[in-house]
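Below is a filled-in request sheet from our internal design queue. Each sheet records the structural input a requester submitted and the sequence that came back. We keep these sheets so that new team members can see what a complete request looks like end to end.

REQUESTER: design group, bay 2
PRIORITY: normal
MODE: inverse folding
CHAIN LENGTH: 504
BACKBONE (tokenized):
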């Protein structure tokens, strides 16, 4: 086994002692959201009392691993998620947690339910064939690196090695054959929000134009891109944002430390040929999201979108051929696996989410929210586990800095599946055109917990509707879903919606 070295950053946390195969190992730290409390963000950074510090362990192995974990605070019971790992830990008389991990996996150890979880990332062993001495390789070794902005050009590789903490963000425009790889940490927390002008941001949809924040990885109109192995921590806004990219592969990436407003995981815009495999995402806002262009523009919105969609003589007006597989998702605010909300595209189609494990939720889990004009069709969600907490914290909007989070709805449960065509005063950007959702399949969805399953479907009008949708093979705690065991909300302009379940 190979335990990655820890480089002390801006903070540390001492929540656990951990031994792996009788060897004591060092733990890293991240700041995460403590409560699902959102706010219009320009000029309003979240208070620290809405967050908490947690530990995570990063390593690689190709052999079974024996874990012994000693939490620093008393606990009553412990759960290892995802449940599909089948790990039932033993707890000794003195409070040590022990179990065996048979193969590489990304998982959490939770002696305090959602709070103060221990995140463990075990990568498969691999060797990178990287020549550090060439001009096409940007290399960062163990230690702290204050780099600010990194601009990648065609045929360049950014390598973040074990034990490296790179404070900065990455951008590439019109580049091809680029790689962002390694086993170190990319941390975006040292970049700062810039307020552009004084304005009243309370309940003001236009307020998103009032500040700029840098996405951790921004890729624009790039071809043949690989992001592999790294851990992304503490993003100011989206962690990975590809726009108009083609042939994009993201694998073995870990995202943690999302506590700031709108710190989405992987939000993509009008891309073609995308493969996302074996990633862990704990995000504050949407986890993995398929979008059209989301231009925020004070003038002619359509003009801005058209300018973005056509570049270098090529149209970037469709989103197709996406495969999201084998990902573990913890969502502290927002949707888990989503189409939308911004859907400014001609078509969004041939999208598959499969073999994913969702371990904590707050908002609708499997979601298609079409608020612009895309023809959204041939979308598949299959072989997905959804684990519900006994009590799911109700996501709320913060009204002012002194407004404290208090969830009074102890029976709150979000929709498992939600499909909608709708006008939205912000995300529709003032445009009058709408799109359509059709030929969606949700199958072999396995839910765990006490909550009642909920589905919701709706459209905008008779033409811009949601139709021809199949929900089948839904299981709750190992048993097939039966009639009367779920809530189905059919709003206007939802047609030919089929929920297959056992009778009686």
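RETURNED SEQUENCE:
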């Amino acid at each position: 086994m190979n335990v990655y070295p820890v480089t002390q950053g801006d903070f540390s946390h001492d929540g656990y002692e951990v031994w792996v195969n009788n060897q004591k190992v060092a733990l890293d730290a991240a700041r995460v959201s403590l409560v699902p409390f959102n706010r219009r963000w320009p000029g309003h950074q979240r208070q620290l009392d809405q967050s908490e510090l947690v530990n995570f362990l990063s390593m690689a192995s190709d052999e079974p691993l024996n874990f012994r974990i000693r939490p620093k605070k008393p606990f009553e019971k412990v759960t290892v998620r995802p449940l599909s790992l089948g790990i039932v830990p033993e707890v000794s008389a003195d409070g040590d947690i022990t179990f065996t991990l048979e193969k590489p996996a990304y998982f959490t150890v939770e002696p305090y339910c959602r709070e103060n979880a221990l995140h463990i990332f075990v990568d498969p062993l691999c060797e990178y064939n990287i020549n550090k001495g060439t001009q096409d390789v940007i290399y960062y070794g163990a230690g702290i690196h204050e780099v600010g902005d990194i601009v990648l050009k065609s045929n360049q590789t950014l390598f973040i090695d074990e034990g490296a903490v790179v404070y900065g963000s990455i951008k590439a425009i019109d580049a091809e054959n680029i790689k962002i790889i390694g086993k170190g940490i990319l941390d975006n927390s040292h970049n700062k929000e810039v307020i552009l002008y004084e304005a009243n941001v309370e309940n003001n949809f236009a307020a998103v134009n009032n500040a700029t924040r840098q996405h951790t990885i921004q890729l624009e109109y790039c071809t043949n891109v690989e992001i592999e192995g790294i851990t992304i921590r503490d993003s100011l806004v989206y962690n990975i944002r590809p726009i108009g990219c083609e042939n994009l592969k993201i694998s073995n990436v870990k995202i943690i430390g999302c506590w700031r407003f709108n710190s989405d995981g992987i939000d993509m815009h009008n891309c073609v040929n995308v493969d996302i495999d074996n990633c862990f995402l704990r995000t504050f806002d949407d986890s993995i999201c398929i979008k059209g262009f989301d231009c925020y523009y004070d003038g002619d919105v359509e003009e801005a979108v058209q300018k973005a969609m056509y570049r270098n003589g090529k149209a970037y007006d469709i989103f197709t051929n996406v495969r999201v597989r084998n990902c573990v998702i913890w969502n502290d605010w927002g949707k888990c696996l989503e189409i939308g909300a911004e859907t400014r595209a001609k078509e969004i189609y041939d999208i598959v989410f499969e073999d994913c494990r969702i371990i904590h939720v707050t908002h609708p889990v499997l979601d298609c929210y079409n608020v612009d004009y895309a023809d959204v069709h041939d979308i598949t969600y299959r072989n997905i586990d959804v684990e519900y907490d006994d009590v799911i914290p109700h996501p709320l909007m913060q009204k002012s800095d002194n407004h404290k989070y208090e969830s009074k709805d102890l029976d709150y449960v979000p929709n498992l599946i939600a499909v909608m065509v709708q006008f939205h005063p912000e995300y529709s950007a003032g445009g009058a055109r709408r799109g359509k959702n059709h030929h969606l399949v949700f199958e072999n969805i396995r839910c765990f917990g006490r909550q009642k399953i909920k589905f919701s479907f709706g459209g905008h009008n008779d033409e811009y509707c949601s139709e021809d949708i199949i929900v089948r093979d839904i299981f709750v705690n190992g048993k097939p879903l039966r009639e009367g065991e779920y809530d189905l909300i059919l709003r206007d302009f939802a047609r030919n919606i089929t929920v297959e379940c056992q009778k009686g």
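SHEET NOTES:
- The CA atoms of residues 377 and 438 lie 5 Å apart.
- The mean pLDDT is 92.
FILED BY: M.R.
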